[in-house]
Specification:
This protein is an alpha/beta fold and about 260 residues long. The protein is about 35% helix and about 20% strand. About 40% of the residues are buried.
């Protein structure tokens, strides 16, 4: 009888071939160390159930990185000094995976749950990621979007499994530079979802690229990625006060306020 797969073993080359990007030896070692740290801290703080085997390598690492493969494999290389922000980072994904995959990027991780963010800080420190490259902010993202040192600062903003698409758009668009991009990670995606998101980003003065679709390996499900692009300055009214975007998402027919 064949032995059961070792859930702590790194994946074979087929996973990276499916992704379209292969980590170097140092990056792979860092991802393995990240799994070890996640396992350690998940025993103290309930961060995620996606820790072992395919749960980690496909549902965490692969799912975090797949929309970024065009940047990761760009012929001229990844530009130095990209400023990224991960909103609602939870147990550190996608932000920590991207910090490993994009070693010249600076990444801000935002979460409102202090105990989770402290676990992420400890994991990042153990991996040597925090020094000069990572910033952590324990706050609601509505406050982040109004902070002078965050609003309009970032080349890329992202959120994974945080809220509905119009709500996430309201969180992310105010954080972008004029030529920045925001990424919404989604599962299933349909015409109604697209309509609602387009209505929201129109109010926020942004546009939506065509949805990217990806089947995760090993039958782990379908994922979509939505990239948003500013088309003008985000109105000063957004993001609205803490809790308002979730309670009253931007709806079709909303009027763009001045500012």
């Amino acid at each position: 009888m064949d032995a059961s797969p070792d859930p702590s073993a790194p994946p074979d080359a087929s996973l990276w071939q499916a992704l379209g990007w292969t980590p170097d030896d140092g990056q792979l070692a860092a991802l393995v160390a990240l799994q070890e740290q996640l396992r350690l801290w998940n025993g103290r703080v309930n961060l995620t159930r996606l820790v072992e085997g395919d749960d980690f390598w496909i549902a965490q690492v692969f799912d975090s990185l797949w929309p970024w493969v065009p940047l990761l494999s760009a012929p001229g290389g990844v530009p130095d000094g990209l400023e990224l922000i991960d909103v609602g980072t939870g147990g550190g994904f996608p932000g920590l995976a991207l910090a490993i995959a994009l070693p010249t990027a600076r990444i801000t991780l935002v979460d409102s749950v202090g105990r989770k963010l402290e676990a992420v800080r400890a994991m990042a420190s153990s991996l040597g990621l925090e020094e000069g490259r990572l910033r952590l902010r324990c706050e609601r993202v509505e406050r982040t979007g109004r902070s002078p040192d965050c609003r309009g600062r970032f080349d890329r903003a992202m959120a994974r499994a945080v809220a509905s698409a119009p709500v996430v758009a309201e969180y992310l668009v105010p954080l972008l530079k004029p030529d920045g991009l925001a990424l919404l990670y989604r599962g299933q995606w349909g015409a109604d979802d697209q309509r609602d998101l387009e209505a929201a980003v129109g109010v926020l003065r942004a546009t939506v690229d065509p949805a990217l679709r990806r089947d995760l390996p090993a039958g782990r499900g379908v994922r979509h990625g939505l990239w948003l692009r500013p088309s003008g300055r985000c109105p000063a009214a957004y993001p609205r006060a803490v809790g308002v975007p979730q309670k009253t998402p931007i709806a079709p027919g909303a009027i763009t306020p001045g500012g």
